[in-house]
Each structure stands twice: as C-alpha cells, then as structure tokens.
Design goal:
about 475 residues; alpha+beta; Creatine Amidinohydrolase, Chain A, domain 1; Creatine Amidinohydrolase; six-stranded mixed β-sheet; three-stranded antiparallel β-sheet; 13 helices; about 15% strand
Amino acid sequence: MRRRAIAGRPAGSPSIALAFWLVALPGGLAGQASDGSPATPEQRLFDWTRPRFPAAEYERRRDAVRAGIADSAGVLLFPSAHGLSHGETFRQADDFLYLTGLEIPQSVLVIDLPTGRPTLFAPRRDFRFESDTRANDFPGRPLAEDPELARVSGIADVRPLEALEVALREWTRLGVTVGVNAGRPGQLRRVVTSLIPDWDPQILSLYHLQSTYPSLRFANSFDAVARARMVKSPLEVEALRRSARATEAAIRAAAREIRDGVTERALEAGFESACKRNGAQRIAFASIIKSGPNSVWPWRVLASHYDRRNRAMHDGELVIFDVGCEIDHYVSDVGRTFPVSGRFDARQRALLEMEVAVADAIIAAARPGVTLAELQAVADARIPAGERTHMQTGLFFGHHIGLSTGDPSLAEAPLEPGMVFTVEPWYYDHESGISVFTEDEILVTEDGAELLTTTLARDPDGLEALVRDR
C-alpha cells in the first residue's frame, strides 16, 4: 500500500513514536499492611485474565485496520473502557478488545501507521487493586510495570499512560493526524456538548482530546475499523457459533414456561438463567420479550418506561422473543414468535409463514458480492402487496454482529466470506394488534450463506411444539 510522508516529517525518517519510547518504568512496590507487616501477595494480571485468542490473531486484526486507512493519518488511537464495574462485571470497549484482547482499564492502544508498530499506554498499576487502609483485600497489581504484559499480548512496547500526553503534544507540534473512531462514518466533526449529553466512552474521549489539544489534527477511522471487524476470522466464527447455540437452548428452555398468566419478566428470568447455565458470562443486551399489545411496539418505544414490559400474557395472544447471550465477549441475537396457548390461529400462522418466507428469500440471495441494498430489493419483492405497509425491511432487516449486536458496518460494502449478520424482517400491524418476528444469524460463505441458528424451530408447527413441551 502506497504511503506518503506524514505532515511535518520527511519520508523515510524514524517513526514519530521514537520521541517518547524512552520513558523509564520504575519498579513496583509490594503491598504492605498499614502496620508494616506482610500483606496478601501482590496480584498479577494474567493470573486473573488472558486474551481469548493467540497474539497472532490480534496482530492480524491490527494489520487489517491499518491497511484500510487512507495515508493522511499518522497514528491510530483506541482507548479502553474506564474499568470500574459500577456493580456489573467490567466489559472492555469493543475496538480495544478487538485489537488487543486485553481486559485492562484506562489504557490506550496507538498504532503508528508508517511502521505498523503498536504501542500500549497503560496505568503503571491497577487502581482497582489499591487501598491505603485495606492492603489485605487490595494488595496491588502492576499493569505497565508488569513485564508479562508485553510478552503475553505480543505488543512489545508497553508504556505508562502519562507518556501519551507527551506524545500528543509532540504530534500537535509536528502536525500529525490522529485517527480516532467516531462511531459512525463521515467526516469527523468537533464534539459539541449539551445540557444533557448522551455520549458513549468513545465520544467522551474524543471530546477530551479536542478540548485539550485544540490544534491537533484528527481523522475518522470508522470505515477502516468497520471493514476489518465485518469479516470474522475462523476463531470469531466459532465463538459466534457457541453464543448462538447457547441462545437457542435458552429460548427453548424459556418457551416451556409460556402459558396463560405468565408475565414477560418471568420469561426473561427463565431465558437469562438458561443463558448462564449454558456458559454465558452476560446477556448480549436487555432481553426483549413482549406479548399481546406490547408486541406491536418496537423496543425503543416499549422500553421508554420503567415498568411497561411486565404484562401477563393470555391465551390467544402471541409472545415475541428478541434475545441473546454473550459468551467470551461474542454475542448472539435471535428472535422467535410463540403462541401463548400453544396453537396459532389461522391468521397468526399465515402471517408467520409469510414473514419467514421473506427471511428465507434474503438468506437464499446472500452471497459474496451482493450488497445490503440488493438484499433489501429481494425482501421487498417477496412481501405481498397487501402487507407492505406493516413490514419493516429497509436496511433494518438485519445488522452485523460480533463483539456487539451493533458491530460497525458499511451499508454499501459488498458481502464477503466471513461476514456474520442477522436477518430479521419485522411485521407490526397496529390495526389488528398482531406482530410476528423471526431473527436468525447467517455466515457468508464462499458460495452463499450458512444459517448459524439451525437448532431452533422457525416454522409454526415446530414453535407450537416448543410451547407444548412442558
């Protein structure tokens, strides 16, 4: 790939990173109790957690992102999550996890584009393992000071986080462009605050950088990140298969609890419990289980009130599952429609068969080289004319999944082998009060698409049997 000289530095000169690679790392101190007596032994990061994949997998991913960057950016910058659990188990930021596999807080991965050299800026020690008054419970843990971090991660250059401030000032002086992921395609604009901001950590980090270094040049790396993350490696596909299998099993377990008088929240509890029993560390997103009049509302509307999603369902109604487990950071997203009574009536059955036929048409048409717009046209052509006002397809018939149910993607990008996305045409009829929904996951292969969610019934007879299997 051709690269021009970075602004402010002649072509062929040493990496701009050399300006700050020589920051020294002092040795850490072992924890001591307040009276000076020996405390609980200091902990080590890799006694608690390990990357899920070999270091070579993350190196390949970093190379793939770098290959997709226009040569106007001198470095790429990927911040990690803050690291506090806030009552929940810590979950690392997707991009940082994708490129490093590391569960460390308050860190930043930097990739020098001309050389491809990655550098990890991390806290010297883990603040979560420190306490001035409780050394036995919080005995300390080195991060940047731990030599194992470089060896296990495959990132040879590990530096203390404060060295990044030196680098940012130097990049500003040299006119270097810093690539950051803005979370969506398009030109990167200055983040503007508001009285009630709704920012994710990526945007919060960008706001800090723009405010603290107003002269620093920025570029949006979203497209390059999306192109890399859209195509899953064999290791990622296997992780997605495990997550899909756990979700299918959990739906089957919850379906056996469907009956007149059961509440939506009780079914959520059954599903989520089964996810954990099947190996999930978390659920992929807040479970969406909605019945009767609730079923005709999209989740964004239905979930806008604190206690709306807990109605008791009744015979004659439908109940929709839109749910997923998360195993080893990889998620699933599966949907099914069940009859509360165990039997669909004629209208419900006909609508479900129509909606599944639309999904089947999309799956049959998916193959390398096809675009999502072309799949949308296939879906539109399969919908009966009298039902088009109630069917939701557009580009919303599915979405890419991986580390997130909203994995970054580019709508105009042709399909490639290794892409995994959902197929989920929706049917919402507010006039008759009927909604049906089927969501499956597919893997694009060399000559077509493989249905990943194969162990869970999709047809009316099979869905009825799952409810009656009590």
